[in-house]
Amino acid sequence: MVSLLPVAALTGLLRLAIIIHEPLSSWLSQRIELTSPITSWTSLMEGVELYRRGIDPYSGDVFHGQPLLLYLFSNLEDYHYLTVPLLFVVCDILTAFLLRGFAGKVIRYVYDKQMIDLSNGIIPRDAREILINPKQLVDLPNVVALFYLANPLIIATCGIKSLLILDNFIMACCLFSVSRSNKILCVFFLAFATYMSFYPIFLVVPSIWLLIMNERINRSLTVLRFTSYLVAYFLWLAGFLGLSYLMMGSKADFLRGTWGTVLAAPNLTPNMGVFWYLFIEMFEHFRPFFMCVFQLHIGIYVLPLCVRLHDNMYSCLWVLCGLIAVFKSYPNLGDASLYISLLPIWSYTFGYLRQVFVIMLCALVSIVMAPFMFRVWLVTFNPNFFYSMTLIYCVAQIFLIGDVFYAVLRYRYSLVHGLKAKQVEGQTVDIILGKLQ
Known about the structure:
By secondary structure, this protein is mainly α. The chain has helices spanning about 5-20, 20-30, 40-50, 65-75, 85-120, 135-150, 150-160, 165-180, 185-195, 205-215, 220-245, 255, 260-265, 275-280, 285-300, 300-310, 315-325, 335-340, 355-380, 385-415, and strands spanning about 420-425, 425-430, 430, 435.
C-alpha cells in the first residue's frame, strides 16, 4: 500500500486541480461523453437551489438525483469552497483502495481454491504451469488500484464533480463488504447503491449468494438465510425511500423524477449508450414495450450467470457490473471504468482471450472519435455519425465481457482436464467452452 500512496497523492492533486481550474472543468462538464442528466453537477446545483427556495426540484426535468443528495449538498455549500471538491477527490481515492481490497480477497479466494484442488489431486500435472503465482497475490491488487487511480476517464469524471464518483464509491463499498463477508455492511451498501441508481438491484442475488457461500452453512438453512438477507435488503431500501418521502414533505413525486427517469428514460439527451437514438426514432406506441425489454435485458442474465459461475461468483459480479455499464439508460465513459479497473484480477486467464485486438481497436476508435463525430453531427445534422461511435463503444464492451467470460470458463476446464490435446477415436480435437469439438 505504501507504494500506492504517492500515486494516490499525485492523481488526487490532479483531480483537485481540474476541479479548481474553472475553464477546464466547465469545458469537460459540457462533454456528453462524460456527463448525463442523472449525474450532472449542474443539474444537482439547480436542484439544490430549488430545494432551498422551497420549490419542488422534481416538478420539471431539471434534477434527477435522490433527496438525500439535496440535503447533503445544500449543507455542504455553506462550508469552505474546497469542501465539495475534496469530498469528490477523497471518495474517488478511497474507491481505488476499496477496489484494491476487493481484488486482494478475490485473488486470494481463487488461489486458496487452487491449492485445495492441487492437494486433492484434481489438477493434472501439466496444468500446474497455469496456476496463480503467489507473487500475483500482492501485485494484482496494486495493479487494480493503479488502473483506477490513473484512468484518464475517471480523472476527467471526477474533475467535473460527476455524481458517478459517489455511485462508484458506494458500489466499491458494497464489493469490499461482500469480499469480507460483512453481512450488515454488504446489505446496507447494496440497498444504498440501489437507492442511488437502481441498477445495483441486479447484483442482489449474486451478492447474497456469495455471503451464504462464505458462511458455509448447512444446505437446509440456505433458503432461510437467503430470505433473511433479502428481507434485510428491502428493509434498508424502504428506510431510504421512507426518509426521502419525509424530506420531500410526505410526497412521493421524487420517485418519478429519480427511478422513473432511469426506467422510462424520458430525457433523450445523447450519451454513450444505445437508448437515446433508438427511442428518438421509435414510434410512441411501441415505446413502452421496448422500454420494458431494454430494462429487463440485464435481469435476464442474472440467474443463468449465477448457475454457470456458481463456483466463482466473483466473476458473476464482474460480468453483471459490466452489463449494467453497457445497458443502463444513461451511461457515460466513466461507467465502464469501475469494472475495467477490476479486469487485472482475471489476468491469469488472459492466455485464453481471443479478441484482444478487436476489443482494443474498437474501444480506442470509439473513445477518440466520439467528440469529432459529435461535432460532425452538429455540422451535418445527421446523428448517425455520433451514434455509430456509441455502437462501436458498446460492442467493444460486450466483446470484452464475453471474451473474459469465455476465458474464465476455459481456464477452469484446463485446470481440471489438463492442457494437452485430447484424442477421440485416434484424432486430435479442439476444446471449445469445455466441450470436445
